[in-house]
Write a structure and sequence with these properties.
The protein is mainly beta. About 10% of the residues lie in helices and about 40% in strands.
């Protein structure tokens, strides 16, 4: 789930597909040019990416989440699209590929996790977290 901030200062969340992280820890997301998320990122680059699994059928036994906060930016140049754009089998989702494709580059600055044996801090009652080194 990608969370951005809209023009009224409200968070907006939506599921997205995310590429594997690059060597500098950047995460790339494909979207439509001119989508609300690209406009929101252009106005305010603060964003979050949240990955979670509730495991409801097993009483949350294996539930976990990882939540990244950081900065996002939008790319529409040919080099970025060729390098970080969708794989060939997904390009049909953009009828005018690459002209209707935008890429969001998300650079994480902090990671918080819980589950899979990682428990919250007893003192702070918060998930375990770490500030990530600036790699980009």
């Amino acid at each position: 789930v990608l969370i951005t901030i809209d023009e009224n200062g409200m968070p907006r969340a939506r599921p997205v597909g995310v590429n594997d992280p690059t060597d500098d820890w950047s995460l790339w997301i494909s979207t439509w040019r001119g989508s609300r998320k690209t406009k929101q990122i252009a106005a305010n680059p603060k964003a979050a990416l949240h990955f979670g699994f509730d495991d409801i059928p097993n009483g949350h036994k294996d539930s976990y989440y990882a939540s990244f906060s950081g900065l996002a930016s939008v790319y529409t140049d040919a080099k970025s699209i060729a390098t970080y754009g969708p794989a060939k089998e997904y390009r049909s989702q953009w009828p005018e590929y690459p002209n209707d494709l935008a890429l969001i580059r998300f650079v994480p600055q902090r990671l918080e996790v819980m589950g899979k044996g990682i428990k919250p801090s007893k003192q702070l009652r918060q998930p375990q977290g770490v500030n990530l080194p600036h790699m980009a």
